[in-house]
Amino acid sequence: MIGKLGASLTLAGGVQGTITGVTGQQYAVEASTNRTSWSVLTNITITTNGVARFTDGASNAGGRFYRGVLAPP
User: Fold this and answer.
1) E-strand stretches of 1-73
2) Domain assignments of the chain as residue spans, ordered by start
3) 4-70 belongs to which CATH class?
């Protein structure tokens, strides 16, 4: 199963997101302002309900792109 990423803006201007996938699978959540240069925001592991959550509190979070990169086994 390939993970699915969803994200929404918070009232404070940050972003809260989720990645759904296989329980125990690890992802690096990456952020970019231009879709060319990516940096790791956090590393997460899918929990038993098939979801992992992340938060980006950066002031420019609403203008950023996000992706989940599958970690090697």
Assistant:
1) 4-9, 15-20, 26-32, 39-45, 51-56, 65-70
2) 4-70
3) mainly beta
